[in-house]
Structure formats: C-alpha cells, structure tokens
Specification:
Structural class: alpha+beta
CATH superfamily of the largest domain: Histidine kinase-like ATPase, C-terminal domain
CATH topology of the largest domain: Heat Shock Protein 90
CATH class of the largest domain: Alpha Beta
Strand content: 5-15%
Shape: elongated
Radius of gyration: 38 Å
Mean pLDDT: 78
Low-confidence stretches: 352-356
Helix content: 55-70%
Largest sheet: 5 strands, mixed
Number of helices: 8
Number of domains: 3
CATH architecture of the largest domain: 2-Layer Sandwich
Length: 356
C-alpha cells in the first residue's frame, strides 16, 4: 500500500494548531466550570487570536522556506538532465538557508571544474590513441620496407670490409656505416615495440632480482666511463606480480637514460621499496637535469632531448608501466639531476575480458 504524502508545511503547522486548540479547550472547560460567561468569552477571543497569530507566523515561515525548497528542486531537476550551469538565488540570504545556497553553488562550481578537467583528459587520451594507431600503421609498413634492404646493405658492407686492405682509410668509413645501420635497426625495433606491444605475462616473483639484473647489465655498459651505478634493494619486499622481462626493460631504459644525462663523473642510484600499497623503484642521477617546460613532453612518442635519440624509449616505458596498472613520474632540476619513480601494484587488479 502506497504511503500517504503529507506536505511539509502541514507537518510544521499542525502540531502548533493542535497545541493551541487543546489549550483553548482546557481554558474553556475551566471557565465553564467557574460559571463566568464574560470571562469565558474573553478567553475564547484571546485563544482564537493566538491561534490566528501563530498560524500566520508559521505560514509566513513556511513560505520563506518553501520558495528556496522549490527552487532547489528545480535546479536538481536540471542537474539530472546534465545541465551543470545552475545556481540558486537564495544564496544571497544571510541565514542558514543562504548558507545552504552558497554551499550548493560552490558544489556546482567544483562539479563544473571537474567536468572540464575530465573532458580535457578525455581529449588527450583520444589524441594519444589516434597517434598510436597511426604509429602502428606506420611501423608495420616501415618494418618490411626498410629492414629487408637494410639487411642487404649490411651484408655488402661486411664483404667490402673483409676485402679492404688493413691499411686502407676506407675501413674507418665502413665502421661508421655499420654503426649507422645498427642505429637504424634500433630505431625500427623501438618503433615496433611501441606500435605493436604484446601484453605482459604476469607472474608473482621477486622484484629485487628483476631490477638487479638490469643494474648488472647497465654496469657493463659504463665500464669505460667514470659513472657509478648504486643499488639499494628491499629484502623484506613482498613478491610482486609483474612481467620480469618487461620491467627489466623499463629499469634498463631508465638507467641508460640516466647514464646519458651525465657528463663526466657521476652517480646513478636505484632504490627499491614500497609506497601507497605498491612496489616502488626510483632511478636518480646527478646529471644535466630536464628543463621544466620539457617535463610534460618526455613521455610522448618521438620526443627526445638528445640528437641521437629515437624519442621512443620513455614512451615504451610508460606503456609497459601502465599495462602493469602502475604509474611513472619524474622530478628534475636543471644542473642537479632527475629522479624517475615507478610504482607497480603488488597484485595486478583483475580485468574481465569480454568475449567477442
């Protein structure tokens, strides 16, 4: 059975009226018992006047409250239709109703700002998705069109190099050609990794071991340089669900970038730990640093601050971290160095795959 809806103004007035009527009846009974008709009439008139005054007062009060309530209800209806550009006029009142209106208008302002931020993020993500889709088409075409002739060129260069006399000055030129061929191959490999990624093979294992392997390989790269790579492991760190090959690639890429940012003697420090219920890996160098205006761009594909860079390394790093449901950030100061922070959840969240 549906409950009977009673208007709130009636709920507010009814108790007052009942109390006054009860008092009127009690006064009337008392007067009658005294047997004084004149006094009886005076009490009736006084009580009736009190009822009228109270009724008018409560009615005025109900009207003053009812108007804001109706306006608020109308605004809520507009909001439910998707219109956030609303505000209530009773926010100008200097009372509790006005406080309610000001709080409502402030909440709507925050909602509008949040919606703008979400729309901006959505446009950014769509732009990035379109960029990566174009990149994928470009990569698949370039891989076949460039690698096959490049392999032929590399073979010819090897033959020419073997046939040249040991004292020939052309040997140095052949060496430079080999270096450039390797550079082209590296660019193509990074491009294909970025454009056609394979999903991570998640397994629970020791993150210390994964990072240590990357550090050992990076140390081999700097044997001839005055650069020291330090590692601070976390022996008590729980096992982390991750693709060890891909995270190894992430850490190694960050290490090589850190090494290339150092001119002369320097130190790269890798620290493993935990933060915000995630495993944490930081790579810190005391190199050149990154200008503030470039910090927001360094993870974009093809963006590089080095003349011989491909601009794909950090883009690939971010993609791998995000596919591990983690996040990567960077802080830097020009002339003092940079710190990259990678956070990876200890357990990857379950994602349901829809069957097509």
């Amino acid at each position: 059975m549906e409950a009977v809806r009673v208007n709130w103004q009636i709920k507010a007035i009814l108790p007052v009226v009942l109390v006054l009527l009860t008092g009127l009846l009690l006064f009337t009974a008392a007067t009658l018992s005294l047997g004084d008709p004149e006094r009886h009439r005076v009490l009736i008139v006084a009580a009736s006047g009190a009822v009228v005054i109270c009724g008018v007062s409560v009615g005025v009060l109900a009207y003053l409250i009812h108007r804001p309530m109706v306006e608020l209800q109308e605004k809520v209806g507009l909001i439910s239709g998707g219109n956030l550009d609303v505000a209530v006029s009773f926010a100008r009142q200097n009372d509790e109703i006005g406080d309610l209106g000001r709080n409502f208008n402030h909440m709507m302002q925050q909602l509008r700002e949040s919606r703008k931020e979400i729309e901006t993020m959505h446009r950014t993500q769509m732009s990035r998705a379109e960029h990566l889709a174009t990149l994928g088409e470009l990569a698949t075409g370039l891989a076949h069109e460039i690698r096959n002739p490049l392999a032929g060129i590399a073979g010819v260069i090897e033959i020419i190099g073997r046939d040249l006399p040991p004292t020939s000055p052309a040997r140095e030129m052949v060496k430079d050609v080999r270096t450039e061929i390797n550079q082209i191959n590296r660019i193509l490999t990074d491009l294909l990794e970025t454009a056609r990624p394979h999903p991570p093979q998640m397994m629970r294992s020791n993150l210390n071991t994964t990072v240590e392997h990357a550090v050992m390989l990076a140390r081999q790269q700097v044997l001839s340089q005055p650069i020291k790579i330090e590692l601070a492991k976390a022996p008590d760190l729980p096992e982390v669900e991750h693709d060890s090959d891909q995270i190894h690639q992430v850490v190694l890429n960050l290490l090589l970038n850190a090494v290339q940012a150092i001119d002369g003697p320097g130190t790269v420090r890798v620290v493993i730990g935990s933060k915000d219920d995630c495993a944490r890996v930081t790579v810190t160098d005391n190199g050149r640093g990154i200008p503030e205006q470039q910090l927001s761009q360094i993870f974009r594909p093809f963006y590089t601050t080095r003349g011989n860079g491909t601009g794909l390394g950090l883009s690939l790093v971010r993609r791998i971290v995000e596919e591990h449901h983690g996040r990567i950030s960077v802080t830097s100061e020009v002339g003092k160095g940079s710190t990259f922070e990678v956070l990876i959840p200890f357990t990857a969240p379950f994602v349901e795959v829809e069957n097509s």
